Amino acid sequence: MRIGLLTEGGYPYLNGEARLWCDRLVRGLGQHEFDVYALSRSRRQEDEGWPPLPPQATRVRTAPLWTVEDHGTVLGRRARRRFAEHYGDLATVLTTPALQASASQADRFASALYGLAELARDTGGLPTALRSETAVRALERACRAPGARRTVRAARVPDLLAVAARLERALRPLSLDWYEDDALGAVDLCHAASGGPAALPGLLARHFTGVPLLVTEYGVRLRAHHLASGAGDTAPAVRALLAAYHGRLAAETYRQAACVTPGNGHARRWQERCGADRAKLRTVYPGMDAAPFAEVGEAPHSGDPGTLVWVGQVEPAKDLVSLLHAFTEIRRTEPRTRLRIISTGTEDAAYLAHCQALAAHLFPDEAEGRHAVGDNPVAFEAIGEFPGPADAYATGAVSVLSSVVEGFPVGLVEAMLCGRATVSTDVGAVLEVIGGTGLVVPPRNPRALAEACLDLLRDAGRRERLGAAARARALELFTVEQNIAAFHGIYLDIVSHSPVRRVVVDATGEPLPFAVPAEAHLPGRWTDRTPRTAPSWAPGPPVRATPLTATEGAR
Fold it and tell me: What is the pTM for the complete model shown?
């Protein structure tokens, strides 16, 4: 089958979100063809290019989200009226109070979105119109209209200009030429690697050509938007309007998708609250390559029994401050304990400097004797200083996660694959991932974190039992193999319930008359009419037919 893989800021580029699991998915499903449609986030990302792709990645098309590809399209009078009507409807929906949101408002948002997409298709693009005075005035009328939510009524002209610019960026996929019969219209299935901008081309392909859409969210894009918008000094009216757009887009994506695959129960609950139909949801855990962690995982005694290890990206959400304060409690009871903080990527330089200063203040350099050089029990290191990630976890006996915000805890799974006993905070999908094979404490509670770490540091037998159980759980649930098998089954299920839109041909270009069942040419869930269980009179499991030999066939 032919899959249209939709990404934003990730695969096939060298860096970005969802790059690794998309690469593993494409390489693991060699029996399928993948057309990759990628939205880039920066010039640097495009300049870095991408590594060699497997042969099943037959086509790659890219478009930038960081700049505008304006071909000088000027709308005529009738097109301007259509734009004003659809954009005005979109702005009205965004200013409607949340308590008044209804199915009719959802339909109005969808009608405005697809109306703009059809106009872009007819005219060659809308980048100029989306930045025009017409768009700003439509936003202003909607904010000043009776019944608009209180927050947006106070929007000033700079706020309206900021919203128009952000909406223009978010709606850039409408002007792409990806929705013709020789592009996304030629695939059997669109698979969006995330919500938001990556899923928008899939929505438009479904609208124009009827291609079914699968959406995977290992981190809910709407949640990420809320977290990012609350961190800055953006005006309340701007935050409200943009949050309304992203919320409406998420609801429309979930409504039109044939299947939505959250990466964990935490993401699933977010999707349900945003309007996803529970019947469409199917949890598929991220797949991780267990091979690099095998050697360390099979040697549970390799770590220093008196060392705690933290591995991750240094940023405020990881709450290293609480970890350092917890370590002061640990040192009072176990003065020889050491803590290694290992950064895995681009860190927040200011936050890292703050944590280093706090560690120097809480733990002055100590020496074994009068003539020895002092040493700090807290070490700040980088993952590049180790041969591999597994070697970082191998330096200690207990792995710690101290986050206050977390989606799917990749670092925790890596520690589990290494057979390490873990202490984690109860955030995101931690409880679902750890499943009783580690200790979990409330976030922002240094005393509870310290007590849990001390319990494991003092009991080697318990550490070994929890580490073995954690490794077994990770190998059962979080490997690349289970992830690939799950998506292969979902692909087949979606396509089997969708009408065939193209003729299947053989290597010579001749049609294959029985490549698909005849009833697949009609819309509807025809395969549901087959019995899912064996009939009561069947004595045993089904028996597969034995293929005929050449002699038997001649008879």
Answer: 0.83
